[in-house]
Design goal:
alpha/beta, 15 strands, globular, single chain, 15 helices, 7-stranded mixed beta sheet
Length: 408
């Protein structure tokens, strides 16, 4: 009898050990992340994940949400359009995640967005910039936690329109982001200052490393200002070339992310001074208690200052937690209802609203110029910061409605 009881106990114990992982997983909120952890946007995607993990860690340390911990499951889309959608399918159909997060590739984001719409699962975009995500192809199940190209473009135009520049040149990567960003800056700039002239445009293939012929062309045209549309590694490579050739001293230049720590830290002291840039997050501005606390916690966790992608990931994690609290249960439709119009009252950049009409987080835009300062000896920062509110930079709800009407 004793031996039989022992055998039963062992069977029960073994069953518990084998079942425990799935039992715990079933009692957790699963967040599936598809992003470019290898490829051209790897550093940005990894910073984004660090911010997300930091926020989820803070939530879990306080007991999670609705009595459940939040788990993160990641997949690498390798910045390849053909890879991202299968990874999202796997996370939803095999792993049973409760929502999807990602990605830095706009083509992948749009493909996953359509899949999310079909499967009726929330998809929170944290890196892609295409305005079509929440504009032309926007729908109930997709949210944009970062920014579209319209927002920095409109904000930059508002500041550049007050500068004494009239003759412009446009240059950048020959893909959607490069064209969309420069179009946004130029179209808004023309509306604000009809006297501006476009002398010419130069676009190069993604991955181009020799910018000398393009820089020679730009300098020979003698524009008053250069509007750049590049991202990630190309920004870093072009800024190095601009300094080496003297372009940065000869022609004032605007480049989105030029004042972001992710770019300036990579360039170090090779970064040219005097470059205009925009960003939606700066670790040194504004000097609020919330931003200081975020920077301190992030540095303790990763031994680095947070970047703009880190910030996007961080606020995404806290928006997720707030939406589940408001929903009161783990339910996809109730989660979406709660996320529409959700507010973070005390984010690192102040009050943030996730606008209900288009599911866009309303970020402020910071415009500054690169400069060496005594406080930071290894890299430049953005100085003379001007803040453009989200209300002044984001497309209106009426603009969104028109874009969606055209997309039908």
């Amino acid at each position: 009898m004793r031996r039989k009881k022992m055998q039963v106990a062992i069977v029960v114990l073994v069953s518990i050990l084998f079942l425990a992982p799935s039992a715990f997983a079933a009692d957790a909120i699963k967040v599936g992340v598809v992003d470019s952890y290898s490829g051209g946007a790897a550093s940005l995607a990894n910073d984004n994940l660090k911010g997300l993990k930091l926020a989820i860690g803070e939530v879990n340390a306080k007991g999670g949400v609705l009595g459940k911990k939040i788990e993160i499951m990641t997949r690498d889309d390798k910045f390849q359009p053909g890879t991202g959608l299968p990874q999202a399918r796997d996370l939803v159909l095999k792993e049973g995640v409760d929502l999807l997060v990602g990605t830095y590739n706009s083509a992948i984001a749009l493909a996953i967005s359509e899949f999310a719409k079909k499967e009726k699962i929330p998809f929170l975009v944290t890196g892609a910039k295409s305005e079509r995500i929440t504009g032309q192809f926007g729908h109930r199940y997709v949210f944009l936690m970062d920014e579209t190209t319209v927002m920095p473009g409109k904000a930059a135009a508002a500041v550049l329109a007050k500068k004494p520049y009239t003759k412009y040149w446009i240059a950048g990567d020959d893909f959607e982001f490069g064209h969309a960003l420069t179009d946004s800056v130029w179209n808004h700039l023309k509306a604000l200052n009809p006297k501006v002239q476009l002398l010419g445009k130069t676009f190069w293939k993604m991955g181009e490393i020799d910018f000398t012929p393009y820089i020679t062309q730009i300098m020979s045209a003698k524009p008053d200002c250069l509007i750049m549309g590049s991202s990630g590694a190309t920004v870093i490579a072009f800024q190095k070339a601009a300094k080496a050739t003297g372009l940065s001293k000869a022609v004032p230049e605007y480049q989105h992310t030029a004042i972001d720590y992710a770019i300036l830290n990579a360039l170090g002291l090779n970064a040219p001074e005097g470059v205009y840039g925009t960003a939606h997050y700066l670790f040194y501005y504004p000097q609020t208690p919330e931003n200081k606390a975020f920077v301190e916690t992030y540095r303790k966790a990763y031994n680095s200052y947070p970047t703009m992608p880190s910030y996007f990931g961080y606020i995404t994690g806290h928006f997720i937690a707030e939406a589940y609290k408001k929903a009161g249960k783990v339910d996809k439709e109730k989660f979406i209802d709660a996320l529409e119009g959700a507010v973070l009252e005390r984010s690192p950049v102040g009050r943030l609203e996730l606008r209900a009409c288009d599911h866009q987080v309303m970020h402020p835009t910071f415009f500054g110029v690169t400069k060496k300062v005594p406080e930071y000896k290894d890299f430049l920062i953005g100085t003379d910061i001007a803040t453009v509110s989200a209300r002044d930079a984001a497309p209106t709800c009426e603009d969104i409605a028109k874009a969606r009407a055209k997309g039908k």
